[in-house]
Structure formats: structure tokens, C-alpha cells
Amino acid sequence: MDREIEAKLPHGVALSWGIVKQPQRGPKREMSIEQIVDAAVSIADKEGLAAVSMNRVAASLGFTTMSLYRYIPSKDDLLLLMQEAVSHVDLPEKAEGEHWRESLRKYVRVAMTVFREHPWFGDIPIMGVPITPNNLRMVDWALGAMEGLCLNNSEKMSVILLLSSYARATGMLVRDMERAIRAGASPGAVSGTDYSAALKQLVTAERFPHLHPVFMSGAYTGESDEDLTIGNDFDFGLERILDGIEHYLNSKPSDN
Amino acid sequence: MDREIEAKLPHGVALSWGIVKQPQRGPKREMSIEQIVDAAVSIADKEGLAAVSMNRVAASLGFTTMSLYRYIPSKDDLLLLMQEAVSHVDLPEKAEGEHWRESLRKYVRVAMTVFREHPWFGDIPIMGVPITPNNLRMVDWALGAMEGLCLNNSEKMSVILLLSSYARATGMLVRDMERAIRAGASPGAVSGTDYSAALKQLVTAERFPHLHPVFMSGAYTGESDEDLTIGNDFDFGLERILDGIEHYLNSKPSDN
DNA sequence: AATATACTGTGTATGCAATATACTGTTTAT
DNA sequence: ATAAACAGTATATTGCATACACAGTATATT
């Protein structure tokens, strides 16, 4: 039965669900998909996604390049499995009395953590809606957090899309900054701080009437001491999203 | 003076601002940066980002690969300039009496349009906060839409980050679906619809207690006729964000 | 006017990538 | 016993970005 299901799914996805047929004859396998993916993740963690080549991964396990193709049909599939592997995150046990708002906050924090722990994560493009087990596990958890809320299924999915998008966008920003710092760059080569001196000559009041004052204040590159620090910056957006959801819940005619 | 500014900026960024020193001697140039970028964009529009190689772009203009390097120092810089080129979007003239909410809605719609018209746009990774002219022009416009709002500069920037993230995430989803359809796939190969039959056997009630009913209803893959169509799905999230902002404006102690 | 300089586009070469294909040897089903 | 299906390997193909050396050309300096 797994055979039919497998045929209908992209190879990488079928692999992630572990429903690929096991070989019946021939020599014993000396590697495993898990081993390969772990090796690839480890290389990416240390040296970035660009260092992950089939040759590099195979060599790190003591095999030749082509041996990997006995396990994983293409590099794209390997990337998918890497994404899936690090999406196996610790989701807190469902706290019974917890308010949905706090739960969804946690969801976004956990999702963002993946980007910080595996800076290469965001470098892999997403091809379509997530349909791998660990990704669905996160969706399942988020749906659990919204249990009992006065939202229909489509609305819940929209909320998750919204939160995931925000986690992705801000996770990548945080990653970019931390990556720059780790690379020895000054604290804000990527945040724009390094370039702000140069840019202040280019962002003129004539050409950018509204941006100009913001830029001069340093708020654009996040160097302003005005009020918000960089960390809180991301919280701000999240709280606005949650406010929006809450407002929708309250203002809704109490049907379904 | 441009010389000093140029030195402090990444090459591609300096090019985007047009502050790179013009050559004084030597033969006349037979190409221009604009021409090259246009050619690259045209190839990407027709055949995807993967088709954009230095060789391909040069050949399409009737020159050799290496000639491009006289204009643009690296492929990464070319990609940046491509991004910047298609970010030259039509932003509606500032309608005086328009409500900020409607203006910001327009902002997100325009930002999403870029992903639909240039499906490769989202395939180029973002390196850091945008600091190229057309990108800043969009930020400037959004700030204009928030003029007079009771938000400080940092808060306004956070709002723009929030909206841009949402535009990016949903723009890429729309793109993925349209791309799949254009590629001849059934109306929803990427949305998950094609796989939903197979997935329904994998998403069990035991393993995914909260996702299971949602999946069976078809809301996950967007095939449900429950209430929202796919298009409206994205509007829903946007309206929640705007609600959240509005709520924040109202609930704020009317300082600064 | 002479000449050095900075540039032009080109041709060639390097090194690395993904992966198709043909190979030898191994285990299991028949 | 033997054929089929597999394992890991070696080799080759194709395409990529880009370093470098070249011959010719326009300008700046003398």
C-alpha cells in the first residue's frame, strides 16, 4: 500500500515519510539516509550551505560521491531532508490552561530558533506548502494552540501562514545580523549600520521626503536609541499580529 | 566625493546608486549596465533564474562571457541589480484624503505584484536590509502612507517590516501555485492538492490529532469550499495585520 | 606629436559542481 | 544453482563562475 502512496509523492517527500521501499536483495547498506542527512546538516552548520556538495558529504562519511545517489535521488531531495531534519523542534507540552496568545507566541519563537541554530535554513528555497512530517507536526501543534477558538479551519490556516511568514522573515533578519557578527564584521555590516554614513549622503530629503528624517534618526538601520532595541523590534510586530487576531475574535459574530 | 561614498558600499549597491566612476580613457563601451540587467531579467522572466548564467546573458547580447565583468564585478552583483530593477514599481500617487489603512493595503498588493510578474524574484536570497534606491523608494512611499500616524520612527519601520514579510511570504506562495499551473501541472500540484489523496493516508488522527480534521476538510491544501477562496485567504491575514496596527493606534497613550 | 595609461572585448584555462553510465562484486529470491 | 536486484566505485560529461593574459583603442600628459 505504501507503494501507491509513494508513487504519488515527490521523491524527497516520500523519503521524509519513510515510505520508500527497502531493498530486498544485494549487499548490505553501509550508510543510512539519516547518517547522510546528519553529515550534511553538520557541514552546513559549520561551513554554510555552499559547503554542502555531494562530494563533500560523501567524503565526510568515507565514501565516494556517487554512493549517495543510492540513498537520495538528487541534491534537491537532500536539501529537503535537511530542512525536515532540523524542523524536529522541541515543542512545549500542551499547557492546559494556557492562553492561546501565549501559545502562539511560543510557536513563533520556536520557529525562529531554527533559523538561529541553523543559519543555512533560510537559504533553502521553499517549494510549495510544507507536507513533510516534522513541518506538519509544527502545524499540528499550532492548531492545538488555537483549539476552541472561534475560527473555522481556513481561518486557522491563514493565521498559521501569517505567523510562519513573520517567523521566517524576522528569523532571517536575526540570522543575517548574527552571521555578520560571527564573520568578524562590525556589529552591523548587514543591518546597514556600516553603510549608514555613506547612505546618509544618498538618501536626500528631495528624493526621499518621508524616509529622510527616519534615516537621519538612525531608526532605519536600527541604531537609534529612541526607544526600541533590536530584540524588541521583532516582538513589536508579533504583538501587533496577535492584537489583530484577538480583535478579529472579539468582533466576530459568534457563529460556528 | 562620490569616490569616498562608493568605497564604503558593496559594489552592487554602489552600482545601483549609479555612483561608480565612469572610465575616462579606452575604447567606447558597447554595452551598458542597464542593457545587461534588462537582458538578464528578460531571460529570468522567460526561463527562470537558473537559466541566467553569465554566458547566457552575454550571448543574448552578442558578446562573450567575460565582457560582462567589465561592467558588473560578479554574478551576485548582477542578481542584486536584477532585484533592484524590477523593484521599480508603479506606486500610486499620494491620494490626499486616503485612509492609511487603504494605502498600506495598496503597498502590500504592489509588493506582491513583483513576485507574480517576476517569479524568480523570490529565488534570490536577501542579503541584509535593503539599501538600494528603488527598495528605499518603496519604503519611502510606505512611510508617506503612515504620515501623521501616532507612531515613532522605530514603530513605523517595524510596521513596514511586518507588511513586507507578509507580502514576501504570500507573494511566493501565489507564485508557486501559478508557476505550477503554468508548467502544465494540475491546478494545484504545489498547493498540495495533488498530493492530498496520498497525504490523507499519512496524516493520521493519532499522530496529528489537531491537523487531522483540518486536513480531511481540505482546508490545509486550500481545496475546501468552506468559505474562503484562495485569493481571499491572503487578504484575511493582511486584514488581521491592519487590525492589529489599528488596535495599537487606538489603545496607545497619545504621547509623541 | 609622441607616448604612457587606462581601458575595451576576447580567448583560454582552472576548478568545482551535479549527475549519467558502465563496471565489479555481493546478497537474496526463485 | 542461478538469475535478479542491489552495493559502492571509477570515469566522463556538461555547465558554471571567474582568474589571467592578450591585442587593440581612446584619452591624458608630456
TrEMBL record, chains A, B:
Record carries keyword Mitochondrion: no
Top-level taxon of the source organism: Bacteria
Transmembrane segments: none
Keywords tagged on the record: DNA-binding, Transcription, Transcription regulation
Record-linked InterPro entries: Homeodomain-like_sf (IPR009057), HTH-type_TetR-like_transc_reg (IPR050109), HTH_TetR (IPR001647), Repressor_TetR_C (IPR004111), Tet_transcr_reg_TetR-rel_C_sf (IPR036271)
DNA-binding segment(s): 53-72
Pfam families: TetR_C_1, TetR_N
Residue stretches making up the HTH tetR-type domain: 30-90
Name of the protein described by the UniProt record: TetR family transcriptional regulator
Naturally occurring in which organism (per UniProt): Cohnella kolymensis
PANTHER family cross-referenced by the UniProt entry: HTH-TYPE TRANSCRIPTIONAL REGULATOR RUTR, TRANSCRIPTIONAL REGULATORY PROTEIN
